[in-house]
Amino acid sequence: MGVTIKDIAKRLGVSATAVSKALNDRDDVSNELKVKVRKIAEEMDYSPNSLAKRLVTNKSNTIGVFMFSRQKNSGHDPFGFQFLSGIMEEANRNGYDIVLFSTDSDLLAEKSYIKLCKERKVEGAIFTGLRLDDPHLEEIKESPFPISIIDTEVKGNNVSFISTDNRKGVRLALNYLWKLGHRRIAIINGHKKAMVSHLRYNAYKEFLEEKGQFREELVFTGDFTERSGYLCGGKILELKDRPSAVFVASDLMALGVIKKFKEEGLKLPEEMSIVGFDNIFPGEFNEPALTTIGQNAFEMGVEAVNWVLKRINGEKGNKKILLEPELIIRDSCDTNQFQWLERVTAKS
Amino acid sequence: MGVTIKDIAKRLGVSATAVSKALNDRDDVSNELKVKVRKIAEEMDYSPNSLAKRLVTNKSNTIGVFMFSRQKNSGHDPFGFQFLSGIMEEANRNGYDIVLFSTDSDLLAEKSYIKLCKERKVEGAIFTGLRLDDPHLEEIKESPFPISIIDTEVKGNNVSFISTDNRKGVRLALNYLWKLGHRRIAIINGHKKAMVSHLRYNAYKEFLEEKGQFREELVFTGDFTERSGYLCGGKILELKDRPSAVFVASDLMALGVIKKFKEEGLKLPEEMSIVGFDNIFPGEFNEPALTTIGQNAFEMGVEAVNWVLKRINGEKGNKKILLEPELIIRDSCDTNQFQWLERVTAKS
DNA sequence: TTAGATAACTTTAACGTTAAAGTTAGGAGT
DNA sequence: ACTCCTAACTTTAACGTTAAAGTTATCTAA
Fold first, then answer.
1. A101 touches chain B (CB under 8 A)
2. CA atoms within 13 Å, Cβ hemisphere of A255
3. How far is B345 from A65, CA to CA, in rounded Å?
4. Which of A66, A306, A2 is nearest to B117 (CA)?
5. Residue with nearest Cα to nucleotide D12 C1'
6. What pLDDT sits at residue A348?
7. φ and ψ at A116, to 5 degrees?
8. How far apart are CA A185 and CA A183, in angstroms?
9. Most buried by CB count within 10 Å: which residue of A170, B237, B243, B288?
10. In chain A, what residues touch B104 (CB-CB under 8 Å)?
11. Closest alpha carbon within chain B to A48
12. How does pLDDT run across A181-215, given as a tens digit for each residue?
C-alpha cells in the first residue's frame, strides 16, 4: 500500500539496510547517499512504519493512560483534562505516544489494565482516579513496567505516587481559618475509597488535636459530589452547637454546601466561613467566591510522565512526588472573626 | 522477553500457526487443541503482541485524536474532556485504541498531523478546536484516512463535520428572548477563526433581519475568553441606546459580561438579560445562574468516532452530523419584559 | 474400491524495519 | 609487497504474528 524503505532502495539500486541507515543518520553511510535517500523519500512521500520499527527494536515509545473520572461523563471533573494536558505535552516532548483507555469499557471487564498494557507493549502507564478498592490493585503492585499513580499511593516496586502535599494543603487551610479566629472548624471529607480522603482527614485531625480543638461530631463525609456537599451542609445546620467554619475536601462539595447554606438564609461569609480544596474554575464565579487550596494538576501530569521516563531509562528516583499546594484567598471566609477573637482574648 | 506464540507451540509440540488459529478461535483447529492452547497460554501468562499482529494484518485498530484546546493549560475548557470521554468510550467499545497528540508539542512543529498519523498507521482521526487558519488545512482535505472534525467544517473527500446545530441553537436563544419581549438584542460573538462564530453570527443576523431588528452597532466580537466578555460588556454599557438583552456566543464570555455588568451596578436580570452558549458547569453557580444553550459534547465525541468507523468499514454516510441544541432556562433573563411588552402593545 | 471431501493440522512466506555479521575496494603503514 | 585498516556498503536473520497454500489421515458415497 504505502511506500516502504524497499521501494526507495530499489529506486536507488541499494539495499534496504542502506536506506534505513541513511534515514536514521547512521555514520556508516556516505553523506552522498544520505542526501539522495532523503530526496527520494520526500519525493515518494515515504513515511516510516512505526509498527515495524517498534516490533523490531522492541521499543514501543508508548505510555498508557487510564483515567477513572470521579464524575463520569458529567464533565464536572476539570482536573481530568488538566492532568491529561500535562501528560500529553510532556510525553510528546520526549517522543512518546499516549494511548488512552476508557475505564468503563467492556475492554476492562475482560482484561486487566496490566494485560491491556502488555498487549500494547507500553513502556509505562499512568493512572488517575484509582480507588483503593480497585480489584486490580494487587496486579498493579507487581507491574513489570513503571506506573505513576496520581493521588493514590500503592506500594509496589515499579509504582510511584504523584500528588499534592495534602497534609500541607489541609494545614494551609486550617491555619488560615485558625488565624482568622475560628476554633470550631468542621470538615466535610470525601469518601473513603479515595486515598486523599484519608490523608486529608488525618491532617485535619492532627492539626486540631495540636490545638486541643478536635471534635468528632464535626466530621462529615460526602462523596466529592456537589449533592453530597449540599446534604452535609444540611447536617451541619442541624447541629446544636454550630461550627464557625467548614473545611471542605473538594470544591465541588464546597459549592454544594454553600448552596445549602444560602438556601437556609445564612449570611456568607459572616455566619459561616468555608475553605474548599482543588481550585476548580466554578469556584471563582460562585458567590461568595470560594477560598480554596489550589493544586497544580497540569504539573502533576508532567511529573507523572517524568517519573515513568526516568524509570524507563534506568534511573531510580524517589517514588513519592508531592507538589506544593497553594492557599487561594477569595471571599468565602469571614475576615472579621479575627477582631472578635482579639476582643475575647483581651478580656480574659 | 515475553512469552510468544512459539513458546506455546513448542510446549505443545504443534506449529505456531496452529496456536495462532486456536487463540483466534478459527474453525480449522480442533476443540481439543483450542482448550489445550488456552490453558497453556493462561499458564504461561501469554499476551499477544499487538504490534506484530497489526503489522501483519495491516490493521492498526487505532484512531488518532488531536485537541487544539481553546484555553490551553487553563483547564477552562471543560468541553475538551467531555469530547474525549465520548471518543474514548465509543472507540474502546469498538475495539479501537485512542492515540492522543498534544497539539503544541515540538512534534507538530516538524511533522504535519497527517504525517504523524501515517506513521502510526492510524485508521482514522478526530480533530477538535481546529481553526480556520490552520496551516495544515489543505493537507487535511486530501487525507487518505477518514477524519471527523468537531465544530469546524472542512470540505474534503474523507472529512466529516460533527457539530451542534448552531443555527438552531441561536434561534432557540433569540426566540426565547424575543418572546420575553426583547427587541434590542446585542450579540457578543467569538473570534473569526472559529467556524462556529460565523454560523452563530449568520443565524443571529438572519433571525433579527426576519424581525426587522438587526442593528450593526449591537454586534461585538470577543475571543471566547472570560476577559473578552468582560471587555465587551464594558462597550455595551457605553452605548447611548442600550440593548435590553445580550446573546453571548460562549458561556465563558457570558460569565465575563455578567461580571462587568455587576461591577457597574446593573441589576440582573432586570436591567439586562443574558443568554450564553455551551452550558458549562460554572454557569450553574453564577449569580444569576446562566440561561444558556446546551451542547451535548459527550455525544459529539461518540458521533465523531462512529462516522470514522463507518468510513473504515466502507459505508458512506452523511458527512455532516448536527446534534440538537437545548435551551436551558435559568435566571439570567428577565421574564417580566413580557408583561412590559404586553402593556406597550395594548396601548398602540 | 476408489475418487473426493473433509478435518486438522504444517509449511512457507510475508508484513517493514533494523541489528549483526559479512564483503569489498581502496588506502595507509612499514 | 604484504598485512591491516577503514569507509561504505550488502547479506542474513530476526521481531511475533497471520495468510495462503500445502499435507495427511480419515471418512463418505456410489
1. yes
2. 24
3. 61
4. A2
5. A17
6. 47
7. -55, -45
8. 6
9. A170
10. 89
11. B119
12. 999 999 999 999 999 999 999 999 999 999 999 99
- Candidates A49, A98, A105; nearest CB to B89: A105
Cα dihedral B27, B30, B35, B37 sign: negative
Contact of A115 with A107, CB cutoff 8 Å? no
Interface probe for A, chosen from B55, B63, B111, B281 (most Cβ of A below 10 Å), is: B281
Indicate the residue type of B292: T
DSSP label at residue A325: P
Q: How many Å lie between the alpha carbon of B68 and the closest alpha carbon of chain A?
A: 11
Q: State the fold for domain B62-165+297-324.
A: Rossmann fold (3.40.50)
pLDDT at residue B73, as a whole number: 43
* Closest by CA position to A166, among listed A152, A154, A182, A155: A152
Task: Tally the residues of chain B.
Answer: 348
**Cell 470560594 belongs to residue:** A290
* pLDDT at residue A75 tops 70: no
Q: Are strands A219-221 and B159-164 parallel, antiparallel or unpaired?
A: unpaired
pLDDT band at A73 (very low <50, low <70, confident <90, very high): very low
> In whole numbers, what is the pLDDT of chain A averaged over residues?
92
Mean pLDDT of chain B: 92
Cα of B54 to nearest chain A Cα, Å:
7
Work out the minimum CA distance from A82 to partner chain B, whole angstroms: 5
Distance CA B296, CA B290 (A): 17
> Closest chain A residue to B80 measured between Cα atoms?
A81
Q: Which 3-32 residues of chain B approach strand D with CB closer than 7 Å?
A: 4-6, 16-17, 20, 23-24
Q: For the domain B166-294+328-347, what is the CATH code?
A: 3.40.50.2300
Give B55's contacts in chain A (Cβ within 8 Å).
Answer: 49, 51-52, 55
Using alpha carbons, list the distances in angstroms from residue A109 to A103, A115, A135, A246, B276: 9, 12, 11, 40, 40
Q: Environment class of residue A348 by beta-carbon count within 10 Å: exposed (0-12), middle (13-18) or buried (19+)?
A: exposed
* Interatomic CA–C1' length for residue A37 and nucleotide C24, angstroms: 22
Are A79 and B75 a contacting pair at CB < 8 A?
yes
Spans of all domains in chain B: 5-48, 62-165+297-324, 166-294+328-347
For chain B, positions 183-212, list CB contacts with chain A under 8 A.
Answer: none
CATH of domain A62-164+297-324: 3.40.50.2300
CA distance A6 to A18: 10
pLDDT > 70: what percent of chain B?
Answer: 92
Its pTM stands at 0.92
The per-residue pLDDT for range B273-316, each reduced to its tens digit, is 999 999 998 899 898 999 999 999 999 999 999 999 999 999 98
- What CATH number has the domain spanning A166-295+328-347? 3.40.50.2300
Residue A273, helix vs strand vs coil: strand
B55 touches strand D (CB under 7 A): yes
Q: Decide if A49 and B55 are in contact by the 8 Å CB cutoff.
A: yes
Could you write out the DSSP letters of every residue in B279-338?
Answer: --THHHHSSSPPEEEE--HHHHHHHHHHHHHHHHTT----SEEEEPPEEE--SSS-TTHH
